[in-house]
Amino acid sequence: MTRMTEPADLRADDVTPGTGTALGKGTVKPPRAGLDETLPPADWGARRPVAPGTRAAWGFAALAAVLVAGRLWAAPLIGARALDAWTTIFVAICVQALPFLVFGVALSAAITAFVPASFWNRVLPRRPGAAVPVAGAMGAVLPGCECASVPVAGGLMARGVAPAAALTFLLAAPAVNPIVLVATAVAFPDAPEMVLGRFAASMIVAVLAGWAWLLFGRGEWIRIPSRPPSGTGAAARWEAFRQAMRHDIMHAGGFLIVGGAAAATINVAVPSEWVGGVAGIPWLSVLVLAVLAVLMSICSEADAFVAASLSQFSPTAKLAFLVVGPMVDLKLIALQAGFFGRRFAVRFVPLTFVLAVAVSAIAGGVLL
């Protein structure tokens, strides 16, 4: 019996940067000239991928069917007013987040197609532990929502950036960028310490989460997005940009809809009296507003105005609302699970939430 051997031309340089797999999972490098080009590909039993346009059409058809069914059959059971509130909140979340999601996807595709991997080697320190705070500082100068930070972090990982540094950027960018800080200052005109508290607590949480993932995270827990080689010519790079843009917008848009529907359901189902009844208990009020930030899933550019309206709660509880929301909410959890896998989300989300609540309580006691 003849022993099968691997092709000699599958070398280390055939590995896609940042993925650790040979040109993507289950695929090998095309045969060189002179070899038998009639051989079938390695993944003989793989299904033919569904076109993104077909997948999007089915997704929008299913969404339309759910909304129509809710209007026809659910309204008599839960009340037309509640259904109208659900529809309004759901549409508001999706419309509010979609522009930032498109911006993040476009930025991620541009990073993948036009920014060489050597650029990140020059900008970020070689040691991952030192790259984590630098990535947090990068998030402070890039305006963006939490929906935009997820695809951008995926694009950074695809270009070879250490996952711990990319995750630090993911948490810091929507919480400490200039637009969010200005909005916080406008919402709290008589409390400038709230702006300082939000910046300091959010940055500390982002860096601690990055270091924690660096120390305890495992490679098999996170699915690093893969990108095809962009080529050297301008036409090839624009084609890589187009392919990455189309893939990510179709992929992330579905998870945004799922997260928005979950957030709208929670907003309608949880009575407001339950929230107001715990405002007088200091430690419980911090935890309640932290959970409320997760459930409401408000964009980071607008959450400061909601926090300012919660006058019955303490400043520390409001700070927890502002720190937790941009880092952990329902639509963000859905996006993280879609981009990096469920095994990542079930570990990183609780880590971030615990750090955000603890740091907010400490920062609130010191600064507020």
UniProtKB/TrEMBL annotation:
Pfam families: ArsP_1. Residues 1-14 have a biased composition (Basic and acidic residues). Keywords: Cell membrane, Membrane, Transmembrane, Transmembrane helix. The keyword Protein biosynthesis does not apply. It is found in: Cell membrane. InterPro entries: DUF318, UPF0718. It comes from the Bacteria. It is a multi-pass membrane protein. The chain crosses the membrane at residues 56-74, 86-117, 164-189, 195-216, 249-270, 276-298, 319-339, 345-367. Belongs to the UPF0718 family. This is Permease. It comes from Actinomadura rugatobispora.
